[in-house]
């Protein structure tokens, strides 16, 4: 441990007795050593340990308010571990865990506070770093401009309907082929097929296709595409300074949380929320929201050359456009969509390594805090 002059409090020392052997005192314990170095008594180990354990329990309970309140009370990293001290590195790592409680938070302002706290402490240097990107580039993005910038036709950025995209078409062809083979063998599965189709109809109408999506999510190529899509949302929201509440990859959980679609990334834009509450919406807030919303489509187009998912993203975009005063026309809506997807495409292209890190972290089942740490590490290594 390095010592500095300002951390020592020196007392007047009487002149030594030159005729007696020298004596040396040493700290009787680690706590005494801390008092010598810091010039003040260290807090009791048991109390600090209890406080950190309470923080860990709050994280396990997904209690963001309690976890955040504890972190705010710590002006410096925690000190104590089971034998006397927390190593600084270990206690700093525990700050990240507060992000894992965000998904259960009902108050999104607490989520914003969690990100602000970690950013102030230097954990999130890239959070909101590219917030001003929405002010750059041309506003008019025609299909020709989009193709010249990305090399892809505008139709490549259009989500596919089930049965029309390559993935679902292959599944449909395989299913029909299997039925044909069974019928040719004299195996009549029409009663069972009727039951299956009936269940699929019920799933589509009442459950939003969650059951079929749950089954499809076990197919590796399909699951990978979902990860690419959601990682695009997550990384763009993070770089744009929109706190992420969580990423839901399980279709059943997504349905239970009221999320349209098979998966979802929940993010928050405090400025946009305030403006909508006041009955207005500035261009920068709308631009930022549009970019995050179309980032999943942009990510798929960047990695695969086209987009299959994102139909619900488009629906949410249209819903917001009609709420504007005045509402956007169809041509204005199309231009805004092309502009947003181009901005997100370029942003993800510039940070392809960070996007890949997010995809791999989600694929490994990492918590939100670990996913964001992987993003930060990838971006720091890219410099």
From TrEMBL:
GO terms for biological process: proteolysis. InterPro entries: Peptidase_M41-like. It comes from Rhodamnia argentea. This is Uncharacterized protein LOC115738634. One of its GO terms (molecular function) is metalloendopeptidase activity. It comes from the Eukaryota.
């Amino acid at each position: 441990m390095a010592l500095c002059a300002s951390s020592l409090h020196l007392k007047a020392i009487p002149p030594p007795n030159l005729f007696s052997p020298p004596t040396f005192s040493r700290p009787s314990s680690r706590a005494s050593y801390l008092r010598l170095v810091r010039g003040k008594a260290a807090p009791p180990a048991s109390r600090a340990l209890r406080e950190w354990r309470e923080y860990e329990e709050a994280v396990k309970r997904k209690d963001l308010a309690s976890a955040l309140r504890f972190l705010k009370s710590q002006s410096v990293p925690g000190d104590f571990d089971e034998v006397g001290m927390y190593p600084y590195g270990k206690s700093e790592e525990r700050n990240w865990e507060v992000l894992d409680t965000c998904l259960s938070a009902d108050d999104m302002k607490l989520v914003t506070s969690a990100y602000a706290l970690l950013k102030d402490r230097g954990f999130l240097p890239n959070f909101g770093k590219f917030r001003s990107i929405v002010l750059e580039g041309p506003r008019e993005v025609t299909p020709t401009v989009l193709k010249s910038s990305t090399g892809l036709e505008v139709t490549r950025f259009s989500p596919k309907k089930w049965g029309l995209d390559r993935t679902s078409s292959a599944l449909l062809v395989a299913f029909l082929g299997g039925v044909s083979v069974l019928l040719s063998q004299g195996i009549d599965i029409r009663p069972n097929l009727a039951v299956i189709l009936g269940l699929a109809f019920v799933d589509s109408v009442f459950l939003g296709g969650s059951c079929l999506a749950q089954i499809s999510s076990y197919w590796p190529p399909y699951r990978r595409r979902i990860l690419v899509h959601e990682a695009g949302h997550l990384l763009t929201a993070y770089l744009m300074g929109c706190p992420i509440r969580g990423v839901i990859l399980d279709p059943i959980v997504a349905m239970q949380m009221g999320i349209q679609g098979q998966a979802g990334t929940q993010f928050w834009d405090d400025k946009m929320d305030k403006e909508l509450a006041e009955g207005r919406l500035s261009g920068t807030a709308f631009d930022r929201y549009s970019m995050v919303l179309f980032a999943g489509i942009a990510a798929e187009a960047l990695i695969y050359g086209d987009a299959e998912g994102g139909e619900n993203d488009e629906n949410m975009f249209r819903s917001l456009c009609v709420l504007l005063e005045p509402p956007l026309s169809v041509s204005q809506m199309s231009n805004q969509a092309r502009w947003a997807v181009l901005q997100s495409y370029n942003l993800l292209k510039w940070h392809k390594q960070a996007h890949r890190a997010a995809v791999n972290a989600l694929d490994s089942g990492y918590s939100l805090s670990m996913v964001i740490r992987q993003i930060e590490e990838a971006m720091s290594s890219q410099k």
